[in-house]
Specification:
This protein is mainly beta and 678 residues long. The chain has twelve helices and 35 strands. Helix content is 13%, strand content 33%. It has a nine-stranded antiparallel sheet. It has a four-stranded antiparallel sheet with strand order 4-35-34-33.
């Protein structure tokens, strides 16, 4: 599709400003009725009540909610309150300050900090603009609120041609928070500089740490084996990236990409970036840190992928630690399936030694010997890295390089399960010692495979996907019976929230039941609300939704609908404060794939015209949040609370601040040592 041309000379007035965006795409009169302040009343519990799926063209092209939340106070009284969606800006809005000019939020920058320009249309140079905002983190640094947002990709230029290897970007947005209502508005925004880590490759999901940093991601790492073939797409894509970013294709190196970047913001509002090379290289969907602040689980997106766990040597420091890969020991196939997990140690390293290996110029062929057919001493593996079965052997002395630069391949050689498909978001339930992982499309490598080199996972096909619950346990050993230095080891998993495939499309073109989750992607959890929030990335639902799922009552509620063809992204249940609680929620690529849908309930041509006139088709994405959520303490008084108090904006009470300054995280250590719960 030909993207709408936006020339450098376009004025800010021609681009939808954030103020106009909010009024156009969020509920009316939200300022009057959607910021709920419970005063001093103690809240016992909350319950989300579902909205209907959109039925009209006007609804299908908007991001909106008609859902409500029922608040039950400890005195027994109740109140039902409406939710609202507040859009901060579109990725095409010129909100970013960059070298004395305003540029669109979704525009990538090069190694010198200059906007990357699209010259595909003669005489009409324009900014590249990502239509794919993804992860959000809301950080409170001193007395100031900041938001970090990902811009995942831009797949077409303004001439309508496919683009490969375009660098990605993140923005740091300084926000104003209304002290009475909690409403957030944009003060200023800047692009985050990734020049110290060779640029940013396709950031997908992300997470916020309890110490107010942002953990990003680099998804679909370039295949270093294929890169050695100059006719391969990997070679062309990485060199294209280097040409766009450095202005020098000879600087291309596939091992620069496929990592976890951690972004810190100082009290002056400046961001700094490190990539954590010791956490392994694979298709990083997300890194989610568990409440001990040293154990992390990952999503590995794609087909034939792997579940990884990292245990840091020191809490809040992911520059040094041990990487593990999971063996899936299936125990059942009903209700999404179940399994016990064994963990295979891949290796221990620090960031500096892995970076040194990369900078040495190491190539795939330096790490592995490869054969085109079965051969003694070589292991047959099938991973996301290659479309074919590979026969590999690690060269002597290259085990550490294999473990951290080719984590999935090395894990498969050691026997880890490389059969997961579309492993997406991770969330954690601190109170119940649970984690959750989204398998967006349970099919392909997760089904029984005839003649496969490995067939650990043999589950029924469920194209609409499954969200799994994982039990986190203490006293776990790895596959060699060595103790794992974590009290939060993923020990087993079972299906929790299941989609439902339809035998034929309904009148809106849905091929999965619209009243159940289809293709879960982003996950985030609120401990005090006992609620798992699920965002969809589905071509089985014509409109994608955000859902709430109460893990105690098992109630599933639709709480947001995003524009037709768009994916719900950037989901993050941010810290609650005295007068605010936010569920960050974005959307990307609105209008995608409408032509492929079998829609009869409304006029498809009118729907396509309406989304084109409203947002454009795959021209922009939106960054915003769901408001109207109750804030303050919910549930038991002894529940650990991360919220702000008035005048104490760094998200911790005094006890937490004292422990944080000493490096003694008492609350989280207590959580990790609660052996009775294990």
């Amino acid at each position: 599709m030909i993207k709408k041309r936006m020339t450098l000379g376009l004025s800010l007035a021609l681009l939808a400003s954030s103020s106009f965006t909010v009024s156009a795409h969020s509920n009316d009169d939200h300022k009057e009725r959607h910021y709920f302040n419970p005063g001093n009343q103690a809240i016992a519990k909350v319950e989300f009540n579902s909205m209907d799926a959109p039925t009209t063209i006007d609804q299908m092209i908007k991001t909106y909610t008609k859902a409500t939340v029922k608040v039950t106070y400890k005195d027994g009284s109740t109140e039902e309150l409406p939710l609202s969606y507040d859009q901060l800006f579109l990725s095409k809005d010129k909100v970013v300050s960059n070298k004395g000019e305003k540029i669109p939020a979704g525009t990538p920058i090069d190694v010198n900090g200059d906007p990357i320009i699209d010259y595909s249309v003669p005489d009409e140079p324009s900014y590249y603009i990502s239509d794919a905002p993804d992860a959000n983190s809301l950080l409170t640094i001193g007395n100031q609120e900041y938001m970090i947002s990902h811009y995942e990709y831009d797949s077409k230029n303004n001439a309508g041609e496919s683009v490969s290897g375009l660098p990605a970007s993140m923005t740091l947005t300084q926000l104003n928070r209304d002290k009475k209502t909690g409403e957030l508005t944009v003060q200023d925004a800047n692009k985050i500089d990734f020049s110290s880590v060779h640029g940013l490759w396709n950031p997908c999901n992300g997470s916020t740490t309890d110490w107010d940093t942002h953990l990003g991601s680099e998804e679909y790492e370039p295949d270093a084996r294929a890169f050695e073939n100059k006719d391969s797409s990997a070679y062309k894509n990485v060199r294209s990236f280097a040409d766009f970013y450095f202005g020098d294709a000879s600087k291309a190196n596939p091992y620069y990409y496929g990592w976890i970047p951690e972004i810190s913001v100082n009290h002056k509002g400046s961001a700094s970036v490190v990539k954590h090379y010791s956490t392994g290289r694979f298709s990083h969907e997300i890194m989610k840190v568990l409440p001990d602040h040293k154990t992390a689980l990952f999503g590995d997106d794609g087909s034939n992928t792997m579940m990884f766990m990292y245990v840091a040597d020191k809490a809040e420091d992911f520059s040094k630690g041990t990487l593990y890969a999971a063996k899936f020991n299936q125990t059942g196939s009903q209700n999404g399936g179940s399994a016990d997990l064994d963990w295979i140690k891949l290796g221990h390293a620090n960031d500096q030694e892995i970076e040194k290996i990369i900078n040495s110029g190491v190539q795939f062929s330096d790490i592995f010997a490869a054969s085109d057919q079965p051969k003694e001493g070589y292991t047959a593996i099938k991973t996301n890295s290659s479309s074919e079965v590979e026969y590999l052997k690690v060269k002597p002395g290259m085990e550490k390089a294999a473990a951290f630069l080719e984590s999935r391949r090395y894990g498969a050689i050691l026997g880890a399960t490389s059969e997961f498909n579309k492993m997406e978001g991770i969330a954690v339930n601190e109170k119940e010692h649970k984690a959750y992982v989204a398998i967006s499309y349970q099919e392909g490598s997760m089904e029984k495979q005839q003649g496969s080199v490995q067939d650990d996972i043999q589950l029924p096909k469920k194209e609409s996907g499954v969200t799994y619950e994982i039990d986190l346990k203490n006293n776990q050993n790895d596959s060699l019976h060595h103790s794992i230095s974590s009290k939060l080891v993923a020990a087993d998993m079972h299906g929790l929230v299941l989609g439902e495939d339809l035998k034929s499309p309904d009148a809106y073109g849905n091929t999965a039941n619209p009243d159940k989750v289809a293709n879960p992607d982003n996950l985030t959890f609120s401990d005090d609300m006992n609620t798992l929030f699920i965002g969809e990335d589905s071509d089985m639902h014509t409109n994608n939704f955000v859902w709430s799922y109460n893990v105690e009552t098992k109630k599933l509620s639709r709480i947001l609908s995003v524009p037709v063809g768009a994916e719900a992204t950037g989901l993050n249940a941010a810290k609650a404060g005295r007068n605010s609680r936010y569920l960050l929620s974005n959307y990307q690529h609105p209008g995608a794939d409408i032509s492929e849908k079998n829609i009869t309930a409304v006029d498809k041509s009118e729907l396509k015209e309406a989304i084109q006139n409203s947002l454009g088709i795959e021209e922009t994405g939106g960054v915003g949040y769901i408001s109207g959520l109750p804030f303050g303490r919910i549930g038991s008084e002894d529940h650990h609370y991360h919220g702000h108090e008035e005048g104490d904006f760094d998200g911790r009470d005094k006890h937490d601040q004292e422990n944080h300054s000493r490096g003694n995280h008492a609350d989280h250590e207590h959580w990790g040592h609660d052996d009775k719960k294990d």
